[in-house]
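Standup notes
- HV: blocked on the assembly model, inputs below
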Amino acid sequence: MEYEASNNTVRVTGISSFDLGQTLECGQCFRFTKDDENSYTIIAYGRVLHVAFDKDTFVLHPCTLEEFENIWMDYFDLNTDYEEIRERLSASDPVLKEAAAFAPGIRILNQEPWECMISFIISQNKNIPGIQQIIKNISERYGDRIRDGIYAFPTPEQLGRATKEDLRACKTGFRDKYIMAATEAVLSGRISLDELISIDTDEARKLLMSIPGIGVKVSDCVLLYSLRHRDVFPTDVWVRRIMQYFYFSGAEKNDAKEASINEIHTLASSKFGNNSGLAQQYLFHYARKLKIGL
DNA sequence: TACCAGGCATAGG
DNA sequence: CCTATGCATGGT
């Protein structure tokens, strides 16, 4: 990988296994818009960033050399060798070979833990446009204005000022109490999200799940998308469907009983091991595009 | 109108 | 451990 900065723009070449659309649109990130073919605007780290691919060059703007090295290089996980992980997953399993070949440019973003946690609390029982709308409402009401009409995700202190009624006005619905509980856990210091990066996965998950409104699926999303635990396998309805279809249905497809989350996790762990997170991303994307069964 | 959306808490086997 | 139900809200 090589990069250079000029005119508040950074150009990166020599990245393999990276596609903007596949990475942003596989459901791990909510705050972006698609401006054009292979051109997106992202809001993160209190900044607005335009990203695009110009032939084989990854272009970021506005972006200084320091911002690229300190923030975005890690955000897009550019220091990880995805070629190697993808080959390992492909070789170990025929289904993954298909799924990975379908979207080989997926990377797992390293997002901000606080925003990620609140966003996935919001995500329960909502579709993606609905989730994006609520996050936008909350940011506009409590976050700092970055520039006209664009607001940063609020800090814990800022969101801590919200009352239940305020949150309801942002259309959070029954999630209002969960958001308040998570905010309180962070503000009080009971849970330090950054510390969850370096502790054992199961221990970190246990701590996250001590917050009401965070269950197995939401905690696994936070662990994978922001806390760098790549061995988890977030299992939502789509992943569940595709796992059922490929791994748990017998010869007669319909009479097999539904596999439980525990059974799916056990199978994922034994097949994909430390790379379960990326395997889940490939499978999620694959399932949504193919719309298998149901 | 009724039913669903990347779940979770709760009450009950 | 597993299963059934309600849940705010907006969209078909």
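- HV (later): unblocked. The first strand of chain A starts at residue 2 and ends at 6. The CA atoms of residues 249 and 255 of chain A lie 8 Å apart.
- Next: hand off to the docking folks.
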